[in-house]
Amino acid sequence: MVWRIYLSLFFSSALNSETGEHVAIKKIANAFDNKIDAKRTLREIKLLRHMDHENVVAIRDIIPPPQREVFNDVYIAYELMDTDLHQIIRSNQGLSEEHCQYFLYQILRGLKYIHSANVLHRDLKPSNLLLNANCDLKICDFGLARVTSETDFMTEYVVTRWYRAPELLLNSSDYTAAIDVWSVGCIFMELMDRKPMFPGRDHVHQLRLLMELIGTPTEAELGFLNENAKRYIRQLPLYRRQSFTEKFPTVHPSAIDLVKKMLTFDPRQRITGDSLIIESILVVTFLSLNCFCNNNNNKGDYFDYNS
C-alpha cells in the first residue's frame, strides 16, 4: 500500500493513494527503547488484529519503515474517527438523554464483544471512546488490555485513576471484567452530568471520594479483599451512603438506577455487561434516534447533536 502521511490540527492522518481511504495514524516514537511500552504496543496490535466489531476501532495497517536498519518508530493506521467522548463532554455541545443512552448502548456492545473474547480492556475512559459525525462510537487503545486466560499475575496499576474500581484501588490482583463495568458507570454519569464523578488527586483521595458517595462497605462487601485491605478499610472514617438522586438532580431516575448497579463496591455484586444491555433504560430508544449532524469543517463545534 502507498500511504501519504500529513498532519492536521487534531491528529496525524494518512491517505491510501490506492484506495482513497483516510486513516488515523498513531506514532509510537522510539518504540523499542522501553520494554513496557514495546509490550503494550505489541499487545494492542495482536489483539486488534483478531477483533472485528463495529464498536471496536479497527487496525488498517502497520506502516513499515523505509529501511529495516532505521526501524525505531512504529506507525499504526486505524480507521479514522472525528473526535472522542472526552472532547464532547468538555464542549458546550448539548446532549439529550437519548444520545447518552445510545452512546452507552454502543459502549456496552463493544465491551460485550471484548469480554466474550476473554479480554479485559482495563483502561476505559472518555478519551478512549472515539466518535464520528454519525454518532458511531468505537472503543480504542488496547495497550493495557489483558487476556484473562494468561497465567502470570494481573497487575494492579491499570485504569486511569478517576475510572478505577475499588478492587484496583485496594491492590487486588484477582480482578475480573467487573473493573470495566465500574469504568463504564463512571463514564455514563460523567456523560450525563458533564463532569467527572470521582476526580481523585491521588490514590487515597480517589478511594475517599467513592466511599463518600457509595458509603463505607459492610463486612460482607469486604469479603473479596485480602486481610491487609480489610484492615485498611476498617480504620477509615465511616461514610454514609449519599442519595444519588439528590447529588445528581438533573439525571433521569432510570439512569441513576443503572449507574448504582454498576458502581457497587463488591465486584461480585456488580451488574454484568449482559444484564446491562437488556436493562429497561436501553430499550429500543436508540432505534428511533434522529442523529443527523452538520457537515461543516469547524471541528471546534464538533457535531450538532441537536439537529
Automatic annotation (TrEMBL):
GO molecular function, one term: MAP kinase activity
Catalyzed reactions: L-threonyl-[protein] + ATP = O-phospho-L-threonyl-[protein] + ADP + H(+); L-seryl-[protein] + ATP = O-phospho-L-seryl-[protein] + ADP + H(+)
Leader sequence residues: 1-16
Entry keyword set: ATP-binding, Kinase, Nucleotide-binding, Phosphoprotein, Serine/threonine-protein kinase, Signal, Transferase
Enzyme class: transferase
Catalytic activity, EC: 2.7.11.24
SUPFAM superfamilies reported in the protein's UniProt record: Protein kinase-like (PK-like) (SSF56112)
Protein kinase domain ranges (all copies): 1-282
UniProt-listed Pfam families: Pkinase (PF00069)
Family designation: Belongs to the protein kinase superfamily. CMGC Ser/Thr protein kinase family. MAP kinase subfamily.
PANTHER family, sorted: MITOGEN-ACTIVATED PROTEIN KINASE
Full protein name: mitogen-activated protein kinase
Organism annotation: Linum tenue
